[in-house]
Protein: Glutamate 5-kinase
Organism: Azomonas macrocytogenes
Amino acid sequence: MRDKVTGARRWVVKIGSALLTADGRGLDRSAMAVWVEQMIRLGEAGIELVLVSSGAVAAGMSQLGWSSRPRAVHELQAAAAVGQMGLVQAWESSFAHYGRHTAQILLTHDDLSDRKRYLNARSTLRTLLDLEVTPVINENDTVVTDEIRFGDNDTLAALVANLVEADLLVILTDRDGMFDADPGIKPDAVLIREARADDPLLDEVAGGRGGILGRGGMQTKLRAARLAARSGAHTVIVGGRIEQVLARLKDGECLGTLLSPERTRHAARKQWLAGHLQMRGRLTLDAGAVNALRQGRSLLPVGVKSVEGSFRRGEMVVCIGPNGLEVARGLVNYAALEAQRILGRSTDEVEKVLGYIDEPELIHRDNMIVL
Ligand SMILES: Nc1ncnc2c1ncn2[C@@H]1O[C@H](COP(=O)(O)OP(=O)(O)O)[C@@H](O)[C@H]1O
Ligand SMILES: N[C@@H](CCC(=O)OP(=O)(O)O)C(=O)O
């Protein structure tokens, strides 16, 4: 029984090219339908799920009648642009059987390293999850080069897991999990059931590159598990063709390889916030807001008495109590000029003052450390 898996409420599921495209013969729609059925059941069990789907290049190659993966990046990008259409259509129509919608999100790593774009992507994803729409994410292959060359949706999936604060990253692939050697080279290799993501011994076993369609191999999956672990998420690398794989994972069956983080999600997030960012401004709060923050709630504009500094959306600010002492720090949802205009205002008034509303919170509790 894996309680970290059965207890996970937010999952990121990544499906690699090799699986999705039936080893190069176009999209495997029947396999997609089987995963969708399981994802729908997970949703019914109260799990929020984000899908990271590769397969655009492979689908495009088959639509264009190409039998071998091109080397030139512009050809890969063209194939991805063609294939992405079919890929999202296939997901959408499969979810539509259950009266559910999907949403296409194309991201690059740069989008997630810029704090403003990071927050924007995060609000969109949160909103989609609230609307019970399944986001289907792929790399924005038209504008990336290295990623498309190396096939790195594993890393993208891990960054998405950090972004949405997933509890669990499930990487579905064409093997049953991570073996102690590449099973393509050593047929008697043994499946690793569980390990710590940071275990250095794993570097040796994950040495090989992937197949002709998927490109990352186990190396990128291991790196993804380590990245996901930074925000406290567990990763399962598991065979996507195993019958009812997602449902059985949810039920706690020991399928695939479970890679665990060294820290809890809360500790990981705190460390990330504490270590990486420079303070750009100060918000002075009233006593009510200080209490709310101490009870684990978000900071609303209504509890803010003054704003100092020239910060932008997504930057780090410090929150000071009425006694002048620091209470919290966090990533702010509004730039300084806007924050000035909405301080002391109720949530209803924010939209009237600004003419729009990004988020009701000035700092969301997930983006804050209370001291
Ligand atoms: N230690 C290992 N355990 C399992 N598979 C491995 C290992 N090392 C290398 N591989 C290779 O990685 C491949 C899966 O990666 P990849 O082709 O990139 O798939 P995907 O498209 O699912 O990302 C497997 O088919 C396997 O040959
Ligand atoms: N983003 C591209 C390539 C990503 C890729 O190859 O990833 P993977 O198969 O998961 O190793 C695509 O959709 O084809």
